[in-house]
Structure formats: C-alpha cells, structure tokens
C-alpha cells in the first residue's frame, strides 16, 4: 500500500513541486508584517500588491520541471521589474534560485550557464543599488546571495551529471539484456537445427527399413505368407514411428545450408561408452539403470543421450577438482526419467555467460513433451533432471 502511494506521489510532479514550495510560501507569509512596516524603503508595498507579487513569484514553480526555462524566465523578469521599480527583495524571490537549479539540472549545459549569468547579473545590479542607496549594510547579504547562486548552480550540474550517468547505466543494462536474449535465441535456433538434422537421420533410417521390409514382403508373398505378414507388421510399426518423428521434424527449424553426413546416431545403449569416455577424461561416473526397459524410439533415445552428454560436459567444465557424478536412468510405464547429479562446486561454479547447454537440453526434451530442471543442490553440487514421455498419450 505504501509503495503504491509513493509511486502515485512520484508521478504527480506538480503536486510534489507545490509541496516543496510550501516552506518558502510560509516564510513569505510570516515575513509579511515586517515588509509592510519597513520604514527604510522609499517604495513600500500595499498588502494586495505584496500578495500579488508573492503569488507571481511562487506559482510558476509548480510547473518548473515541465517548463524549466519558461518558469525561470518568468521569475527572473518579475525580479528584474522589482529592481527597476525599487521594490524591496522578498523571501519569495528565492524562487530564482529554485529556477536556476531546475535549469542547470534538467536543461543543456549552455542553458545552465545562461541562467547562472542572469542570476549573477541580478546580484550585481542589486549590489549596485544597495551600495549607492541608503542601505550600505546590505553588502553582506548580497555577497551571500552570490555564493548561494554559485552553490545552487553547481548542485544542479551535479544532479544533471548523476541523472545522465544513471540513464546511461539503464540503457547499457537494456542493451546487455537484449544481447543476452539474442544469444539465447541464436543458441535455441542452432540447437533446433541440430536436432532437425539428427531427426532427419532417424526418419531416413526408418523409411529405409520400411523399403527393405516391403521388398522382402513382396518376394515372400507367394512362397512364405507368414514371413510376408511379419514384414508387413514391421512396416506398419516402423511407419508409425517414422510418422511421429516426421511430425516433430516439421516443427523444428532446419538449416538447409548445413547438410551433415548421414551416420548412425547414439542411443541408450551407447550411454556406457559415454560413461567410459567421461571417466577417461578424469570424471568418475556411476551409471545406474532402474525399472523395466521400455520400447523407446530412436529420436527419444538420442534426446536422452544428448541430455546426459551435455550434463556430464557441464560437470567436467564447472565441477572443479575431485568431482564425481552419478547418472540414474529410470524406466517408468509412461516416461523415462534421467538424473545427472554431481558433488562439485554447484552455485559457486564460475559462469562466463556464453554457455547454452541448458537451453539445448530443454529444447530436446520439449520436442517430446518432456521437461528439464537444472539447479544447484543444497550443500553443494549440481543436479539435472529430465523427464521424457515414451508414449504419445503420456505427453504432458
């Protein structure tokens, strides 16, 4: 509630400026009897003229941040008219200093210098009038006014510089955020292109199996009807798998310019070989399989393999010395769950901000309706958990 009221108050600049002018208006009101009864001035103000002059000096300051140059010009002209008319200086004339600060803080540097020159000129004119008039004792206050003019101008320049610095920091943060988002999009697109190429190989393999089985069924149709029926069943199952993979392939961007060589893609059986490679690189890995192995399509097997590979690669890069990892592969009725857990640095691991491995893992799991969670563990280490549905009706 307090935060909302503060935001509402900050958004009403005119009200804020009017509130800041209240002390000056109160001081002017309290000094009114002394001004009206001052016998030292040749030109004395009536109560109505004093009230009108105070209002003309104070009211423009309500819009000082909307129209800084105009409001400063207004109060400066009124003060100059006072000097020409010989009217005594009022407390309300302090709005000239407020206008000077506003111009220095919100306008270009040249406008701040111009406002400073006007205020210094006004101080010189007032000093000249006092020194050649009946009040030589006013020299001290005029000197103080000149010092105050310089101090207010310097304060306005400081605030202007600080505001420009903060604005530059905000713009830089926005640019960095935009660049980070662009890098993530580029990494996502590159990973999708890579997935599309790999799935292309999987679909091509399935179609090749269908062609071979169809040829065999054609040759065995008359001599061995049972074998021909078995080949047709294999064609049907492989066709359904290829059709499901093709649907996903159409939903993934593929870089036509990058045509990799067709080669067998790794799957779940190659996880043991992957574990041996990681052990040879210096990371002790324990690979466990639980549950009853279900029939997993080649595309899903490839996605699981790549997720484990990327998680172990991250452990090698960021885990630190004497780090070990455990890979658990659980076969459920509707999904395969993969957990890669290490005891490395975890949240304390250095991050250069250029890695996109987690983005790639999430993209691979999302193709099959799965999900990936990755986070530091309590007490140290890092954990990556992936859930991959193995049947279309089990997709999230």
> Main sheet: which strands, in order across?
1-2-3-5-4
* Main sheet specs: 5 strands, mixed
Q: Report the mean per-residue pLDDT as an integer.
A: 77
CA-to-CA gap between the ends? 40 Å
Which characteristics define this entry?
63% helix; 396 residues; 5 strands
Task: Give a quick precis of the structure.
Pfam families: DUF7134, HATPase_c, HisKA_3. The protein is an alpha+beta fold and 396 residues long.
Question: What's the SSE blueprint?
Answer:
Blueprint: H1 2-11, H2 13-30, H3 32-36, H4 47-58, H5 68-85, H6 95-106, H7 109-131, H8 139-223, H9 225-250, H10 271-280, E1 285-291, H11 298-318, E2 325-331, E3 335-342, H12 357-367, E4 371-376, E5 382-389
Helix pairs in contact: 4-5, 5-6, 5-7, 6-7, 6-8, 7-8, 8-9, 8-12, 11-12
What does this structure look like?
It contains twelve helices and five strands. The chain has 396 residues and is an alpha+beta fold. Among the domains are: 2-134, no CATH class; 268-394, 2-Layer Sandwich (Heat Shock Protein 90), CATH 3.30.565. α11 links the parallel β1 (285-291) and β2 (325-331). α11 (298-318) packs antiparallel against α12 (357-367).
């Amino acid at each position: 509630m307090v935060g909302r009221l503060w935001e509402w108050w900050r958004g009403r600049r005119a009200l804020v400026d009017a509130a800041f002018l209240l002390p000056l208006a109160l001081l002017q009101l309290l000094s009114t009897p002394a001004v009206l009864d001052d016998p030292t001035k040749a030109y004395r103000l009536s109560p109505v003229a004093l009230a009108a002059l105070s209002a003309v000096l104070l009211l423009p300051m309500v819009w000082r941040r909307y129209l800084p140059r105009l409001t400063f010009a207004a109060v400066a002209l009124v003060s100059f008219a006072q000097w020409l008319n010989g009217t005594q200086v009022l407390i309300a004339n302090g709005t000239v200093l407020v206008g000077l600060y506003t111009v220095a803080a919100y306008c270009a540097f040249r406008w701040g210098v111009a406002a400073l020159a006007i205020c210094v000129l006004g101080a010189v004119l007032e000093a000249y009038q006092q020194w050649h008039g009946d009040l030589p004792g006013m020299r001290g206050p005029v000197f103080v006014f000149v010092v105050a003019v310089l101090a207010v101008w310097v304060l306005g320049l400081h605030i202007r510089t600080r505001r420009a610095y903060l604005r530059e920091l905000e713009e830089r943060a926005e640019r960095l955020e935009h660049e980070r988002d662009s890098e993530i999009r580029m990494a996502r697109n590159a990973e999708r292109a890579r997935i599309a190429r790999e799935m292309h190989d999987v679909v091509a393999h399935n179609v090749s199996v269908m062609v071979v089985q169809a040829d065999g069924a054609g040759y065995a149709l008359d001599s061995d009807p049972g074998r021909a029926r078995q080949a047709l069943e294999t064609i049907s199952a492989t066709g359904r798998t290829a059709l499901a993979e093709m649907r996903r392939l159409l939903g993934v961007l593929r870089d036509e310019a990058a045509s990799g060589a067709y080669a067998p893609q790794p799957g779940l059986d190659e996880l043991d070989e992957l574990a041996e490679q990681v052990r040879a690189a210096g990371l002790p890995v324990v690979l466990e399989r639980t549950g009853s192995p279900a029939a997993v399509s080649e595309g899903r097997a490839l996605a699981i393999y790549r997720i484990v590979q990327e998680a172990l690669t991250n452990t090698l890069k960021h885990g630190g010395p004497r780090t070990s990892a455990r890979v658990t592969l659980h076969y459920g009725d509707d999904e395969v769950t993969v957990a890669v857990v290490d005891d490395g640095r975890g949240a304390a691991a250095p991050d250069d901000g250029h890695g996109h491995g987690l983005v790639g893992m999430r993209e691979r799991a999302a193709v099959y309706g799965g999900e990936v969670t990755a986070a530091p563990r309590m007490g140290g280490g890092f954990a990556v958990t992936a859930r991959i549905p193995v049947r279309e009706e089990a997709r999230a």
